[in-house]
Amino acid sequence: MQGLNFVGAGLACLAMLGAAIGVGNIFASYLDGAMRNPSAAPAQFGNLIFGFAVTEALGIFGFAIALILIFAAPGA
Amino acid sequence: MMVSTDPMHQFKIGKLFDLKLGDLDISFTTSALWMVIGVLLLIGFLALATSKTSTVPGRMQSLAEIWYGFIAGIVKDVNHAPGKPFVPLVFSLFSFIFIANLIGMFPYFLTTTSHIVVTGFMALFTISLVIVVGVMKKGFGFLKIFVPSGVPFVLLLIVTPIEIISFLSRPISLGMRLFANMLGGHVALKVFAGFVPSLAVALGGIGMLMGGVLVMPLIVGVTALEFLVAFLQAYVFAMLTCVYLNDALGEAH
Amino acid sequence: MSHDDLNKRIARAQAEIDARERPKYMAAGKGMGLGFRMASDFAAAVLVGVVLGWGLDAIFGWSPWGLISGLMLGFVAGVRNVVATASKANQAPQPGEATQVPERGKATKGEGDSA
Question: Cα separation of B215 and B212, whole Å?
Fold first, then answer.
């Protein structure tokens, strides 16, 4: 049963799939809104970064689990 | 046939002749050969272009002037007056990367910038230069870039490690980006090109027709994109060198 | 005397050409370069944080906690990199933005087609 932690790490990286979709969605929506009302776009820049950070953080959690499984696995 | 469809085969480096310096292996490799060719091409072109300078520039001289003016413009935009001594450095970096990328676009030629040793060394050199120049200009005060002004002490405990990580990430991002773009682009090109023989083997005549009609325009498009990337990565490298030099030269921000 | 005058005239003409030509052919390349820059800056900061955290783990034996806190700090540093780059890029074209926005979109599209 050795090496299963690497399989787990690979599975944990699936979290980045969701993060990628989410980040794409956020920037797409921002551009969508900015094209409709360019004058309001700079005011929403902070919200854009906030949304990006939160979404990316959720992907990073998956990455963290992958790293822990590879480098600091509790059982290994 | 099988070897030529392996997308990583193009990045193999061979030894041309053996050289030893003590225990170090400093053999002259194909990568070194292509770098030397690139530098010789550059020197040859620039020497030719500037050999007969006139007030009204000819074709070669205009090209050299536009080339130099482009880099001098970037340095002027980013660093203003204090950046003037660094124009030759940025020009050399840009020209070397650009010519290496362009050489890599020819079939059977080696892309030297697709090896992380080359790009990583250039990135480390750039950051070392920033540190040396910063310490020479500001002395101990250079460390202030890690301590943003106007931040309460408790927050500094968190902000300073973040700034240090952000500073350490620069050489990695600088070297990795160039390396990854060149490697990725050439692998993509090779993989797309590999569709043609595999389609032909799998489907015979129809496969060859499909390869010609469907895949070939794709390869042409990707090649054009690669030319854009070749220029763009050299430009980004040169511009980031200027931006990082600003930390050493410019005002605190 | 006249040399100085010529230099001034060259500088003025150059500035005029720059103002007219630059946005046209630089827009597509600049956007793409900015994208590459932000993505790799973010990834590199996370990577550095992880390596530093892992190194602290190996030296002091804090097992998973150095890695985790290094990752968090690296993530924050990455977001800070992205914010710094993005806000600088946002600031640059501010003057005359209203007239530039539609033109820029067109220029980008044209460049993309030819590439």
Answer: 6
Question: Which residues, in sequence order, are CB contacts of B148 under 8 Å at separation 6+?
Answer: B159, B163
Give dist(CA C46, CA C75) in Å, integer: 5
Residue pairs between chains A and C whose CB atoms are closer than 8 Å? 40
CB contact under 8 A, B232 and C115: no
Minimum Cα–Cα distance from C99: chain A residue: A38
CB atoms under 10 Å from CB of C98, counted, come to 9
Does residue C45 sit at the B interface (CB-CB below 8 Å)? Answer: yes
Chain C within 8 Å of B62 (Cβ-Cβ)? no
pTM tops 0.80, yes or no: no
B149 φ/ψ sector (left φ>0, alpha ψ -120 to 50, else beta): beta
**Chain B and chain C touch, per 3+ beta carbon pairs within 8 A:** yes
Contacts of C54 in chain A (CB under 8 A): 71
User: B67-97: string of b/e by CB count within 10 Å (b at 16+)?
Assistant: bbeebbebbeebbeeebeebbebbbebbbbb
Looking at CA atoms only, how far is residue B176 from chain C in angstroms? 8
Show pLDDT as tens, one digit a residue, over chain B (253 residues). 444 567 777 788 888 877 777 788 888 888 889 999 999 999 999 998 888 877 778 888 888 988 998 899 889 888 888 888 899 999 999 999 999 999 999 888 888 999 899 999 999 999 999 999 988 888 888 888 888 777 788 888 888 888 899 999 999 999 988 998 899 888 888 888 888 778 778 777 787 787 778 888 888 888 988 998 899 899 989 988 998 888 888 754 4
Using a threshold of 3 CB pairs under 8 A, tell whether chains A and B touch. no
| Angle of CA points B65, B69, B74, to nearest 5° | 160
CA–CA distance, B10 with B14 (Å, rounded to integer): 11
Q: So what's the ipTM on this one?
A: 0.74
Q: Are C115 and C36 in contact (CB under 8 A)?
A: no
